[in-house]
Design goal:
The chain is of the alpha+beta class and about 250 residues long. The protein has 6 helices and 4 strands. The protein is rod-shaped, with a radius of gyration of 38 Å. It starts with 16 loop residues before the first helix and ends with a helix.
Length: about 250
């Protein structure tokens, strides 16, 4: 092994030079390295919306004696099981959040978390599938591969449910908005009819003027003006209603 150890690798791991040479400064994508009878799995911890562009590596190494080691968490193959359990807990929580979501904002918050998880979970499954093919006799890898496949299906279902919920919520909101707009239009038409009915009366009163109410009520001309105004109001109202029916 070279004296220089890339940043993602623990300094005390005695990996073959053929594996060390393939590492850079960053851990890179999730992948398998199978060199000189050593198997190294480079996985990612569950991503979050805040660090979607940054990935924290989880390394699992099976040496030529079939001994497992892990980093940064110790435990070897058990650490790999716990790694998958961490994904399972997050997916379960997101599934509950989808069921509890009511508004487009609720669904959007879930979708922000599911999108990076969909990619990470799918790539994780592909890595474990490749590792199983590299070590077909390993029962542990077969079981872990099956768990990773189940996680991949689960997060896809959560993402699909969140998108469906978002679409339905937006459609329902648009329908409510259209209903409110319709009711506002109905109220506006009613108000326009009232204005149309009383507009002639108001106009005639303005033209002829109004004196003391007691004197006005005794004037014969007042009742004539009022009658003409009401008739004119009905005419304007009827004309307006006829035009609206034609539209």
């Amino acid at each position: 092994m070279s004296d220089h150890v890339p940043a993602p690798l623990p300094a005390h791991w005695e990996l073959p030079e053929s594996i060390v040479r393939r590492f850079g400064i960053e851990p890179g994508r999730q992948r398998v390295m199978d060199e000189d009878d050593h198997l190294l799995l480079i996985l990612h911890h569950p991503p979050s919306p805040e660090d979607d562009a940054t990935r924290k590596a989880a390394l699992f190494w099976q040496d030529h004696e079939d001994e497992w080691r892990s980093f940064p968490d110790d435990g070897g193959i058990d650490a790999l099981r716990k790694h998958l359990e961490c994904y399972a807990k997050i997916i379960s929580r997101l599934d509950e959040e989808v069921d509890a979501a009511k508004t487009p904002r609720d669904y959007f918050e879930v979708m922000k978390q599911t999108n990076p998880l969909v990619r990470a979970t799918r790539n994780q499954y592909l890595v474990l599938e490749e590792a199983r093919k590299a070590r077909p006799e390993s029962r542990s890898l077969i079981v872990l591969r099956d768990q990773a496949e189940a996680l991949d299906r689960a997060i896809e279902l959560v993402a699909a449910d969140a998108k469906s919920g978002m679409d339905f919520s937006l459609a329902e909101s648009s329908e409510r908005q259209a209903h409110f707009s319709y009711e506002a239009g109905v109220e506006a038409r009613r108000l326009n009819r009232l204005v149309a009915f009383f507009f002639p009366v108001a106009t005639l009163v303005t033209i002829f003027g109004i004196n003391n109410p007691e004197e006005v009520l005794q004037l014969r001309s007042f009742w004539i003006v009022l009658g003409v105004g009401i008739i004119a109001g009905f005419i304007v109202l009827g004309t307006l209603s006829l035009r609206m029916r034609k539209k």
